[in-house]
Automatic annotation (TrEMBL):
It comes from Nostoc piscinale CENA21. The keyword Translocase applies. The keyword Transferase does not apply. Keywords: ATP-binding, Cell membrane, Membrane, Nucleotide-binding, Translocase, Transport. One of its GO terms (cellular component) is ATP-binding cassette (ABC) transporter complex, substrate-binding subunit-containing. GO terms for molecular function: ABC-type transporter activity; ATP binding; ATP hydrolysis activity. One of its GO terms (biological process) is carbohydrate transport. The lineage of its organism: Bacteria, Bacillati, Cyanobacteriota, Cyanophyceae, Nostocales. It comes from the Bacteria. Residues 4-225 form the ABC transporter domain. This is Sugar ABC transporter ATP-binding protein.
Amino acid sequence: MAKVRLEEIKRRFNNVTAIEDISFEIPDGEFWVLVGPSGCGKSTILRTIAGLETATSGKLFIGDRLMNNIPARQRDVAMVFQNYALYPHMTVAENIAFGLQMRKVDAKLIQERVATVARSLSLEHLLDRKPKQLSGGQQQRVALGRAIAREPQVFLLDEPLSNLDAQLRDDTRAELKQLHQELGITTVYVTHDQVEAMTLADKIVVLNRGRIQQIGEPQSIYAFP
Ligand code: ADP
Ligand code: ADP
């Protein structure tokens, strides 16, 4: 877990400025949601935090460490995309445990972590299945579990629920919230969905044309009639 701080981050692609003057600090353990129209720069911000994009200028800190020149694989960050990609030959439990095994985490701790994640994401009864024996929604839950089981400092999600049907989206959203409450990992979440933003966010960042329009708690962003 760690705070995430962006200082005047800018990213230009040739002549296109994707994001500009992006500054905010996410306190350790908070869940922030980025919203705004397609093309406003949400993914570029997420990818910059992950190290998949390099800022043209500005500074990125995770914890107190300046990350600009730290490659993605050396960042303690997990990212989940719209399209999950699980290891097809491994069971659900093995998929979730994978990142921990790579880090040579103690077997008992791995078991505990897998159990916690499986409970939060309602996967307990599926642990011995292979991905192809799961529905799309179940597979995406495994992808979420796999990303978060090793408890990265920062968890990044780019529209992780948008390929799911409405009921699954509601269930998975609730489970994700539960998981965040249990693990308390600093999270940045991109969505088009107002309900997701409202129910998940500690703070919402509203972007427009690559700039921050507003940052606030959900109640201050979406007015209620
Ligand atoms: P969002 O995630 O909000 O839809 P993006 O961060 O994907 O927005 O894109 C922001 C802007 O930057 C868009 O105008 C997009 O076309 C542009 N952009 C993003 N990635 C690239 C790239 N690799 N090359 C050129 N332009 C890009
Ligand atoms: P979204 O709108 O869901 O964020 P996009 O379809 O805009 O996703 O972008 C998907 C990928 O294409 C991203 O990796 C982004 O960096 C890249 N991309 C987006 N816009 C452009 C562009 N104008 N030129 C090149 N690559 C782009």
